[in-house]
Amino acid sequence: GDSVTQMEGPVTLSEEAFLTINCTYTATGYPSLFWYVQYPGEGLQLLLKATKADDKGSNKGFEATYRKETTSFHLEKGSVQVSDSAVYFCALEGLAGGYQKVTFGTGTKLQVIP
Amino acid sequence: DAGVTQSPTHLIKTRGQHVTLRCSPISGHKSVSWYQQVLGQGPQFIFQYYEKEERGRGNFPDRFSARQFPNYSSELNVNALLLGDSALYLCASSLGQGKETQYFGPGTRLLVL
Q1: How many other CB atoms are there within 10 angstroms of residue A16's CB atom?
Q2: Inter-chain contact B35–A43, Cβ cutoff 8 Å?
């Protein structure tokens, strides 16, 4: 079945540092790929998405490119801020047996220190 | 526009009790999915409903059930609660089946004592 593997955290960075969170996936067909962010005590917020190979999703300075050849969707940001501290989930969405299902990675906690 | 709403926000139950969680999708969305997120883990798919019919089910016991109403809102029911059912329960809605983005609600945090 579908699966998502992302780097374990926590990741601790200083403000303005460069961020990379690795994500690889296994899926049949052509899934859509997502990054969700979860701030403490809150639900999931969609950060960015890409629906086909070579698409680049971007939002709030974050970027990720759908790489079918390496089955990857790594999250990057050039300069992180303290407000970026949260848990980041890589996810894929595919159709399985006629229904829409999102498969999540285990999450990577990011802590940005001033 | 209102996003996905869920109620209650928090809930405390004891083992063996029953719980009902509620979800209202974004206006115009006909599909609702439920996820369980145990502390420190990613969300796990429980159910998807579309046009009031169950379209998909994850690897959860029969104690978990759900339904969708004519207005597309949904309820998740869990019987005979176990300590391990303590989690954040997330509802997500989308327009319908297909490659569409699911939008998540804030979740209901259930604690089973």
Answers
A1: 11
A2: no
